[in-house]
Design brief:
The structure is a homodimer of 318-residue chains. Chain A is 33% helix and 24% strand. In chain A, strand 4, helix 3 and strand 5 form a beta-alpha-beta unit. In chain A, strands 8-10-7-11-9-12-13 form a seven-stranded mixed β-sheet. The first copy, chain A, is α+β, with helices and mostly antiparallel strands and 318 residues long. The mean pLDDT of chain A is 89. The first copy, chain A, is built from ten helices and 13 strands. Chains A and B meet through strand 2, strand 3, helix 2, strand 4 and strand 5 of A and strand 2, strand 3, helix 2, strand 4 and strand 5 of B. Strand 3 of chain A pairs antiparallel with strand 2 of chain B.
Chain lengths: 318, 318
């Protein structure tokens, strides 16, 4: 096996082309410039083999999915992706072929989102663990957060949800399958589209935003808590995926949408005045921001005006 | 066990006090400002249980060591620590007590270095894996790198090395020992001192710098390769640790110093004109930058003017 240094040189040191990156892979640390009038938005995201993806999935797909999921946090803040760091913990028996495939998937995704790999750390580990720290630029004071949902805002989704959760049962049956040319559900799981362009458009349209990674209900509760309001979701307006409905039926497709994560669509709130613009952008209005009822047991999220059981909200990490 | 969100709220959401941090833990991403005239220096560093530290070591010491090692990269660039992200992958049976101890060690170290926790991700994993992404500020264009060692520079060390490597054999015998009030070798292992103040002073004194994490010889070769020169180390000038000499003898203490990592002292090159200043700062001159002999097998590092076998250079990650 290659030494750590040879490995980095071979697999993770491709040319970068970004005027704001002063020093990338190869020194003790990276150096970036943040232009005057901008702030740096940053997020860190870990995926663990057989927890977040099947360990035997193709390495290039593992890399694609990991980077896309991480970049989605930048979309949720309205940021423009710039750079990322990779911390890769690998079992000792990892093959060079696996690494090259992983590197190839990572590079392909990085090119698509115009984001530069500027640093990393590779370590030996009993389990494959991928941590990506991504960063992007946003104009000073303009970043979208979860804290500013306002009473009577509409609640919106950027696209269909539940597709990735529906895909997972198929993927777990044959994780090794190469889905390069597959337009079915599995592609949604491995190639989630980070909503970068929309996120930047939402800066002038939305009051609050986040990306859905743990399920609609659970993630909606995060906006509600951060903004101290109640989000009432209208189930009939949630855009479900046709293939999920076809394969699993309407009820299960809705359940995937409510509690399944991994689609990385944006959930956001916006004033009624911009509803037409958001419709034109292909977004779906799925509910409304209401005032929080004064109860001892706060209902941050309502589904069709009814309380939702905490346990059926979405993915629990522990 | 607490849910992920409760866990973050309880253990990793302490008040931050830094005017450049616009948004910390709790949203999709953090937001930082980089003041005009400064650049952001960033590094990512992973430590894996039973690879980088004993899994059964006290949790607060594990946290202390992980953060100190990561911050050391900022010292090596001459940066002033500002903020960090934590990606923590935990076995499912991790106790709340362990987490609280980890959090307490992390917070104590963060306070000491005045560095703010601004974001993170906690995941479930078969192995305990800690990834820290640290960042700091440096005046534009002033960061120390590995690439600018110059012919006839002296080679310097910020302090004794080999102490941490000498400690490791004791630590592996009783990893559970609490060494809070221990001034012996073990403290060097768990509480390495990131040379932040010195790093910033070196900006106007040194031509190149890095921190020693994988062993003096191996790390010296990184400066040599990056600067396309040869580093000739004079073994009799390497500052060895008295306790290591006492416990293991002179020869083994030297071996620890040459190939053991984990002391996180700075290795740097500087012109002869600043030798007195560096002596006054408590640094040790240990060698000289020479021109690279034209040979097919390049000797980046010499020890007492003799070539060094690659295999005896230092820690290999794979």
């Amino acid at each position: 096996m290659l030494t750590e240094f040879e490995l980095i040189k071979h697999c993770f040191n491709w040319p970068q082309n970004n005027e704001h990156i002063i020093c990338a892979v190869g020194d003790d640390a990276s150096i970036v410039q943040v232009p005057n009038g901008y702030e740096l938005v940053q997020s860190i995201d870990t995926q663990v083999a057989d927890v977040h993806f099947p360990a035997t999935a193709p390495a290039d797909l593992i890399a694609q999915r990991a980077l896309r999921c991480a970049i989605s946090d930048l979309a949720a803040m309205g940021a423009n992706p710039q750079a990322f760091h990779l911390a890769l913990s690998l079992p000792k028996d990892t093959s060079q072929q696996w690494l090259q495939s992983f590197s190839s998937g990572l590079r392909s995704c990085a090119n698509e989102y115009d984001i530069s790999l500027i640093g990393g750390d590779t370590t030996s580990s009993p389990a494959l663990v991928i941590t990506l720290q991504v960063q992007g630029l946003v104009q000073t004071g303009k970043a979208l957060t979860r804290t500013k949902a306002q009473l009577d805002d509409d609640v919106w989704l950027s696209g269909q949800i539940g597709r990735s959760a529906a895909a997972l049962s198929n993927i777990l049956k044959s994780p090794e399958a190469n889905i390069e040319n597959d337009t079915s559900l599995a592609a949604a799981y491995y190639y989630p589209q980070a909503q970068i362009a929309l996120g930047q458009q939402l800066i002038t349209l939305a009051h609050s935003a986040m990306d859905i990674s743990d399920g609609l209900l659970q993630d909606a509760s995060h906006i509600a808590k951060a903004s101290n309001c109640c989000i009432n979701i209208e189930s009939q307006h949630i855009p479900l995926n046709e293939i999920a409905i076809e394969q699993f039926g309407q009820n299960q497709a809705l359940q995937f949408a409510l509690t399944g994560g991994d689609d990385y669509q944006l959930l956001f709130t916006a004033p009624k005045s911009v509803a037409k613009k958001l419709n034109d952008l292909g977004c779906y209005r799925i509910g409304k921001v209401e005032s929080l009822k004064k109860q001892s047991n706060k209902n941050w999220v309502l589904l069709d005006s009814q309380p939702v059981q905490n346990k059926s909200m979405g993915y629990q990490h522990f």
